[in-house]
Amino acid sequence: MTVVRYQNQWPSLFDRFFNNDFESWNRDNFSITNTTLPSLNIKENKDSFFVEVAAPGFEKSDFKIELNNDLLTVSSEKKLNNEVKDGERITKQEFSYQSFSRSFTLPELVDEEKISAKYENGILAINIPKREAAKPKSPKLIDIK
């Protein structure tokens, strides 16, 4: 009869769960106030930059977009209040407060006067157009004399 040593697989599972990746996820996805930072996409084409901020559950009025010189700041502060009506009492209440602030330094080629934003289906979309002088021009054939 051969004796086989039993190897416990649980320690490796716990080691993977509590490794540095898990700890850095906690630091990278939460702000200083321990609130979740929304994910975003930044896209560019020949005419504009586009910033998309994923913020489901917000209202258009919850956002503040501010341009200070070349620094664009997107922020939000949202408090959920559960009012108690006559004849009701609170048996359990969990407060909710969400806030975030993300800032971007805009390049000089941006037309600051034409920046626009809209909030739809949980996505805050910011359109940042480029100046006409900064847009790529089609090649021009120079006539040789």
Question: Can you give keywords for this protein?
Answer:
about 140 residues, mainly beta, 4-stranded antiparallel β-sheet, 3-stranded antiparallel β-sheet, about 10% helix, rod-shaped
Quick gist of this model?
Belongs to the small heat shock protein (HSP20) family. With 145 residues, this protein is mainly beta.
Notes on the protein architecture:
- Helix content is 12%, strand content 34%.
- The strands form 2 sheets. A 4-stranded antiparallel sheet has the order 1-2-7-6, with no helix packed on it.
- Strand 6 and strand 7 form a beta hairpin.
- The longest helix is centred in the N-terminal third of the chain and has 9 residues, at 20-28.
- The chain is rod-shaped, with a radius of gyration of 25 Å.
- It has helices spanning 10-17, 20-28; strands spanning 40-44, 48-54, 63-68, 71-80, 96-105, 116-120, 123-129.
- 8% of the residues are buried.
- With 145 residues, it is mostly beta strands.
- It has 2 helices and 7 strands; from the N terminus they run ααβββββββ.
- This is Hsp20/alpha crystallin family protein.
- Belongs to the small heat shock protein (HSP20) family.
- Residues 31-145 form the SHSP domain.
